[in-house]
């Protein structure tokens, strides 16, 4: 009878009890050693990995699901710091079309410098124009620092300031397989805050459209210059351009983007630029950043100066 009492079913019950005991011991060990915290942090990191590449709906809060409220500062353009940027044709004597608007002699600039960009935006008004649009305020700043130029006491060569007021309309339509997510307009001012002969500035009215398709994003812009022609850069649109197309591809935590600008003119005024960016993860929110630029307008002071630059640094926000 004893053999009947200790049947395989009883052995199965014992095995279950052993597993319960073993699981309990492992849980206690993980709790005491902090392993569970590490596992939880891994889950957080995985969530962050998948959410690192935000859609246009998330970036611009185009629906109720992603609306975060007004006057909350969020990122706009990429935030990065190029530790080293090399130029094939450094502009040592910047000059506008006005021949009297130039320096008395060239500046002894280094071909190597650093560059950084800061950019942010905030939603000012929500659901204006009969509930169809949002109003945003944005600010971007680029700085070019001759930090390796000891002879000139490491000055900032150029700083560009770019505030914007943006009117954005959430949309939902399809063009060539891409989803149209937004249409809008913006008033943009850009200047370097300097006096003659190095003063450069312009105002423009810009129109934009945003599309996405899976890991792809496409943003196209067309702008018209505002103001007179008797300024310090009267033909800036023939160099920097009158339109822009930005194509972005997210590959996991890596991002590739191309920004092309063009004057939308032919002949001698057929000018523009192409900028390529590649970011790759280093640790958490810290990424490496590679940038290649070719054409006119790498900075405002260089709006009519053609060059090719190569930059390598780090990125905080893509």
TrEMBL record:
EC number: 3.1.1.32, 3.1.1.4
Active site per database record: 189, 191
Cofactor(s) it depends on: Ca(2+)
GO MF annotations in UniProt: calcium ion binding; phospholipase A1 activity; phospholipase A2 activity
Membrane topology: Multi-pass membrane protein
Cellular compartments annotated: Cell outer membrane
Chief place where the protein resides: membrane
Keyword Heme: no
Cofactor comment text: Binds 1 Ca(2+) ion per monomer.
UniProt-listed Pfam families: PLA1
Family from the record: Belongs to the phospholipase A1 family.
Quaternary state and interactors: Homodimer; dimerization is reversible, and the dimeric form is the active one.
Protein name: Phosphatidylcholine 1-acylhydrolase
